[in-house]
Amino acid sequence: MKYLSEYRDPELAKKYLEEIKNTVSRPWSIMEVCGGQTHSLVKNGIIEMLPKEVTMIHGPGCPVCVTPLNLIDKAVHLALEKEVILCSFGDMLRVPGSEKSLLEAKAEGADIRILYSPLEAVKIAEDHPEKEVVFFAVGFETTAPANALSVIHAHRKGLKNYSILASHVLVPPAIKAVIDDEESRIDGFLAAGHVCTIMGNAEYHPLSAKYKVPIVVTGFEPLDVLQGILMVIRQLEQSQSEVENQYARIVREEGNVEAQKVIHEVFEVQNQMWRGIGEIPMSGYGVKEKYATFDATKKYEVNIEEAPENPECISGQIMKGIKKPFECAQFGKKCKPSNPLGAPMVSSEGACAAYYHFSGMVEA
Amino acid sequence: MQLQCPMPKLDFDVITLGHGSGGLLTNKLLDNGVFDLLSNPILDARHDGAFLELEGKTAFSTDSFLVSPIFFPGGNIGELAVNGTVNDLAMCGAIPKYLSLSFIIEEGLKVSEFWEVLVAVKFACEKAGVQVVTGDTKVVEKGKGDKIFINTSGIGQVHAKANIAANNIKSGDKIIISGQVATHGMAIMSVREGLEFDSEIQSDTANLNHTIISLLDHFGESIHLLTDPTRGGVATVLKETAKSIDLGIDIFQKDIPIDDQVASACELLGLDPLYVANEGLFIAFVAEEVAEDFLSELQEDGNGLHAKIIGTVTEEHPRQVILESAIGGKRVVSMLPGEQLPRIC
Fold first, then answer.
1. Is the Cβ of B194 closer than 8 Å to some Cβ of chain A?
2. CB neighbour class for A294 (10 Å; exposed up to 12, middle 13-18, buried from 19)
3. How close, in Å, is residue A356 to chain B by CA atoms?
4. Integer Rg of chain A from CA
């Protein structure tokens, strides 16, 4: 398979591991920000292959994990009570709301559909003018252009029955929040390659300069991740703190300018709640006033009380890298993928679920 | 290859509740279709049940089939329903003989579609060498089904040399897979509403009984376990087996056969092929000393062209399945909590 098998070459992987071992001289903690990278680390068994000096910390970059509880409750409410056709990416369906997940709402008869593209949802709205269609627009900067484009398409087509329930989160403010947390001790970051494909690297230079941390924009295949780790360690060992681009075959310094235009046409930056972490200033996208009729939070008066998180869940500390999943008292006991207490146990990109599935901590 | 039988002239185009009522409409549907197409002496007796002559150790299995859409690249629900039960019997080391065939049809199904499913049943039965000897048809109201559900049960005579049981598995046994993984699941996915993508992926649904019988003829009791990784895929079947035998399983990602297009589709959709459903595929646990010969013979068979040894049974890490990744890292393979859901990005 072109462009994949090359990045899974066992001989090259060995060379990178050897080079990492030869380079590292003392303990370092590196955070991979993106859930896709966490998935790759555990799926390929990379964590156990790294020398003991290198500790990987799994960051908050799992969109499923950080989508606020309240918003899931809203989606469930829209699907069950307002009888909209609720469209969503697949892995949002199993995330527990305060009472039920979308999967459970579907079992109760709600019309909930798994899609790969929000543009499909626009088509459903076109085909069903008698029904309201809501797309659950979650994700980082990566999914923002397509979600924004769906609004633009619906606007052009004059659709009155389409809206999005947006929960968009942004990576750079999250990195800042992680570094600012007094308890967290992160020496360097792997930034999310796909986010930078859209947004470019400009936002990361001030961060690495201010906080003196190396940030390496990294891809998702095993060799990408290994190379990214090596690049961070080289910088750390030489007391450098720069932004480097490991994923240069995809990521351009300026990003995808067209995609950015689409984002800025529809969305504006606002304060954002992150499940398990709390509010981070200017860390999300909201729908601009101009497109308010496509904003499900404005279109439907849904007043749902903020439900408290399960007090036994320490997902905030997990996502900031303060604790490892197996340091949680409930990991694998009360909290399992079949009965998650918090979101990181739900998506396979969530740090807890990834550990549960792949690292053999617990007998499933 | 499109297999066809001319559809009889009927004075209705769609199936209605009346066709399941047992009255005149039911008779019309059955007389002009089912009985003719699947005719054999036992079925033709048209009694409430079938009279069978059985000898020796007998295997009995049942399965229900619901697939959306009912027509997919490489087949339809009709041949799935025959092959599914035929293969379950084959996994018991049995020679499949007789099937029951029950339809639950949703009102509004086009008769032409029902006919196409029946024709697929007929040809699948012929290929597998089994007879439909009894059956039933019910019709449910529109909205209470999904076009058509099929249940088949099957009876087979256990091969004289077969001794298939998980308890027979020993440390050192080789684990052999008969072909490429995830093909059927991705063929269905490629035509599922809302997820469609262009591909040439065809379902690998097939009857495995002739292949299995020939392997049993030659390797007999050296075949310790046969199992088909349908729902839940290869990972789930291996994990279930490891748990039941109190031994460990090592598998190697680089050895797991997968078609390039299927692998790409899984990458794009964020699905792990080890958990995707298969149809015309089986996994055999065989004694180490016959493994290479077993593999060579299987690779000569049309159902085993891509067969490979993918792993070994070990006394280490009992009840765990450990996969060595393409780059040499190791991870535990576990069961999924539910259906595999596509990832966001």
1. yes
2. buried
3. 9
4. 20
Burial class (CB in 10 A: 0-12, 13-18, 19+), B202: middle
Distance from CA of A304 to the nearest CA of B (A): 25
The CA distance from B161 to B121, in Å, is: 30
Euclidean distance between CA atoms B328 and B240, whole angstroms: 24
Interface membership of B331 toward A (CB under 8 Å) = yes
Among residues of chain B, what percentage have pLDDT more than 70? 95
Q: Which residues of B touch A13 (CB under 8 A)?
A: 327-328
Model confidence over A169-178: pLDDT tens digits? 999 999 999 9
Mean pLDDT of B317-343: 86
pLDDT confidence of residue A3: 67
Q: Are B34 and B115 in contact (CB under 8 A)?
A: no
- Of B228, B237, B226, B317, the closest CA to residue B274 belongs to B237
Is a pLDDT exceeding 70 seen at residue A358?
no
- A113 strand-pairing partners: A87
Span B76-106, pLDDT tens digits: 999 999 999 999 999 999 999 999 999 999 9
Q: How far apart are CA A61 and CA B298, in angstroms?
A: 46
In whole angstroms, give the CA distance from residue A226 to residue A215.
14
* Contacts B332 to A, Cβ<8 Å: 357-360, 364
Gyration radius of chain B over CA positions: 21
DSSP state of A212: T
Task: Report the residue of chain A nearest B344, measured CA to CA.
Answer: A89
Question: Position A224: which residue type?
Answer: D
Contact in structure between B234 and B177 (CB atoms under 8 Å)? yes
CB B274 within 8 A of CB B233: yes
* Averaged pLDDT for residues B143-170: 96
With 0-12 / 13-18 / 19 or more C-beta atoms within 10 angstroms meaning exposed / middle / buried, residue A53 is middle
At residue A132, the pLDDT reads 97
Diameter of chain A by CA atoms?
Answer: 65
Give the nearest partner residue to A91 out of B320, B336, B342, using CB atoms: B342
**Using omega within 30 degrees of 0 as the cis cutoff, is the peptide bond preceding B69 cis?**
yes
Any A CB within 8 A of B144 CB? no
Reduced to 3 states (helix: H, G, I; strand: E, B; else coil), residue A314 is coil
Say whether B341 and A44 touch across the interface (CB within 8 A): no
B contacts of A10 (beta carbons < 8 Å):
254, 326-328
A139 or A307: which leads in pLDDT: A139
Under the banding of pLDDT at 50, 70 and 90, the label for residue A364 is very low
What is the rounded CA–CA span in Å between residue B63 and residue B82?
10
Is B327 an interface residue toward A (CB < 8 Å)?
yes
Q: What is the mean pLDDT of residues B155-179?
A: 97
For residue A362, the model assigns a pLDDT of: 46
Q: What Å distances lie between residue B220 and A30, B192, B225, B238, B292, CA to CA?
A: 54, 41, 11, 22, 15
Partner-chain contact A45 B325, CB within 8 Å: yes
Is A139's CB within 8 Å of B254's CB? no
Distance CA A297, CA B332 (A): 42
More confident: B222 or A338: B222
- Bridge partners (DSSP) of residue B14 are B110
A310 φ/ψ sector (left φ>0, alpha ψ -120 to 50, else beta): beta
| B332–A contact, CB cutoff 8 A | yes
Per the rule left: phi > 0, alpha: psi between -120 and 50, beta: everything else, B231 is: beta
CB contact burial A245-282 (16+ within 10 A = b; e otherwise) = bbbeebbeeebbeebbebbeebbebeebbbbbbeebee
A272, amino acid identity: Q
